[in-house]
Specification:
This protein is of the alpha/beta class and 289 residues long. It has helices at 16-26, 39-48, 65-74, 92-100, 113-145, 155-172, 186-192, 195-210, 236-253, 275-288, and strands at 8-12, 32-36, 53-57, 83-87, 105-108, 176-184, 218-223, 226-232, 261-268. A five-stranded parallel sheet has the order 2-1-3-4-5, with helices on both faces.
Length: 289
């Protein structure tokens, strides 16, 4: 659960005394406070620091609050930060423009201290909920796409990613390679020792393989003892080097003291080949190897 001290409010006003007044009002709420006295400073802080709410003055030299708000709402990294305008401009035109640009609230100066606290707390409560809900959705998405035994991606994630990357590679004329790996004699290991030993082999295999690939690669357990690695933007010769490195690591760190071994095949996506054809052709090569 997020507490107030984990949230940061950015107070923006070209008059330092106004900033100090707002800080004093919010002091008991225990939020983290950041300050900016210009539009340029506001953008610099917001683009480089985690800000959860902005209290934004409108009338500032060089870049007014409206322009600041507009720029923040156009950036994917800052568009969801709630902005409350604090302004002495009470015209309906200013208020309408503030909301049309994406402001969540508009408080007229001079404002009531209790009203300011209430509105800030309301919008930050909503912000807390959105952050926590987003984190839950991320964790759920990870659970849905991860194989619990090996922590590699599962078949669902593999097929959805491969389908998308085949289309993307075809559109942008980029190389796309696939490494298929099958662990051999895993059932023999289970019979000789127990299933726990087989599980240990799978877990260590996944850990070693994960350490040999790049961040952009997608390592997945297809089923049983079969795994695959999707290598975006990777020609066949580079994919082969990665596969050779994996083989070397597995032989020296895992299969040297185990009855298990592995078979690896490396292929590239051919022109106009769809996902099922790509997987089928690779599986045939693996069986024949």
């Amino acid at each position: 659960m997020i507490i107030n001290s984990e949230l940061t409010i950015l107070i923006v006003d070209d008059q330092k005394t106004n900033i100090e007044m707002v800080k004093a009002i919010l002091d008991d709420e225990e939020y983290q406070i950041a300050e900016a006295t210009s539009g340029k400073m506001t953008l610099e802080i917001t683009f480089n620091k985690k800000i959860d709410l902005i209290l934004l003055d409108i009338n500032m030299p060089e870049m007014d609050g409206f322009e600041v708000c507009e720029r923040l709402k156009k950036d994917n990294n800052t568009k969801d930060i709630p902005i409350i305008f604090l302004s002495g401009d009470t015209s309906s035109e200013a208020i309408t423009k503030a909301f049309s640009l994406g402001g969540v609230d508009y408080i007229r100066k001079p404002f009531n201290s209790l009203e300011l606290i209430a509105r800030v707390n309301t919008h930050l409560t909503i912000r807390k909920y959105m952050i926590e809900n987003s984190a839950k959705q991320t964790r759920l998405a990870q659970l849905v796409s991860i194989d619990p035994q090996t922590k590699a991606f599962n078949r669902l994630k593999f097929t959805s990613s491969l389908k998308q990357l085949i289309v993307k590679s075809r559109e942008k004329k980029q190389a796309l390679s696939l490494v298929y790996i099958q662990i051999n004699n895993l059932s023999k290991v289970n019979k000789m020792f127990n299933t726990k030993k087989g599980d240990q082999v799978l877990a260590k295999f996944a850990k070693i393989t994960s350490g040999c690939i790049r961040k952009s690669d997608i390592f997945a357990r297809i089923y049983g003892a079969q795994f695959a690695i999707i290598l975006p933007k990777t020609p066949l010769n580079i994919a082969q080097k990665i596969a050779n490195n994996i083989t070397s690591k597995l032989n020296s760190e895992l299969f040297n003291d185990s009855s298990a071994s592995c078979s690896i095949v490396v292929t590239k996506n051919e022109d106009m080949e769809d996902m099922d054809e790509f997987i089928s052709r690779t599986s045939i090569i693996l069986k024949e190897s």
